[in-house]
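Progress report, Aim 2. The chain analyzed during this reporting quarter is listed below.
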Amino acid sequence: MSPIEFWLAMAGAALIGFLAGLLSFKVKSRWCPECGAMTYPRLPPGPERGSSSQI
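Predicted structure tokens for the chain:
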């Protein structure tokens, strides 16, 4: 097997793996399609998130 054939095989395998991952990836719905509200609970702001309760 020549180096060119090797790299073509590697590129083909990477492309197949990328497409398989792309097609199997599922994003959960984050917003209600009717009202636009968030579908998961929002965390309260903490010190690292910029809360306004600084002393």
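The mean pLDDT is 79. The CA atoms of residues 7 and 53 lie 57 Å apart. These observations will guide the mutagenesis work planned for the next reporting period.
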